[in-house]
């Protein structure tokens, strides 16, 4: 069964968003001070999904699965529930499949076992 691994939030300013969400949720920056374009916030106690802040990506859920077989099965299960595949330009080493829910909200089914 898929689980929410990451919430990707589209933000206008990663520094401002990081200050807000770390304060609001008690999360911390995973790799220390912001040094890239998409900082990742993690629960200080280690329990719960991560939050990735991104100025270019749209807000969506990353749904995690353990391996390729589970990814295929979960993609098909989600499609049977009303999701649809989204045309996407995938990199050669993509470990994710982009879907949209019945309302058009995006989510990625991510194989966390792939390199």
UniProtKB/TrEMBL annotation:
<dbReference type="InterPro" id="IPR037523">
    <property type="entry name" value="VOC_core"/>
</dbReference>
<protein>
    <submittedName>
        <fullName>VOC family protein</fullName>
    </submittedName>
</protein>
<dbReference type="InterPro" id="IPR029068">
    <property type="entry name" value="Glyas_Bleomycin-R_OHBP_Dase"/>
</dbReference>
<feature type="domain" description="VOC">
    <location>
        <begin position="3"/>
        <end position="112"/>
    </location>
</feature>
<dbReference type="Pfam" id="PF18029">
    <property type="entry name" value="Glyoxalase_6"/>
</dbReference>
<dbReference type="InterPro" id="IPR041581">
    <property type="entry name" value="Glyoxalase_6"/>
</dbReference>
């Amino acid at each position: 069964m898929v689980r929410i691994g990451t919430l990707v939030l589209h933000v206008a300013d990663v520094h401002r968003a990081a200050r807000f969400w770390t304060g609001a949720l008690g999360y911390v920056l995973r790799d220390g001070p912001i040094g890239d374009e998409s900082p990742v916030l993690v629960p200080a106690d280690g329990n719960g999904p991560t939050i990735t802040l991104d100025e270019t990506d749209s807000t969506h859920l990353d749904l995690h699965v353990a391996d390729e077989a589970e990814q295929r099965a979960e993609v098909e299960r989600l499609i049977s529930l009303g999701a649809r595949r989204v045309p996407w330009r995938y990199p050669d080493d993509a470990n994710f499949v982009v879907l949209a829910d019945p309302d058009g909200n995006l989510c990625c089914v991510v194989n966390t076992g792939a390199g």
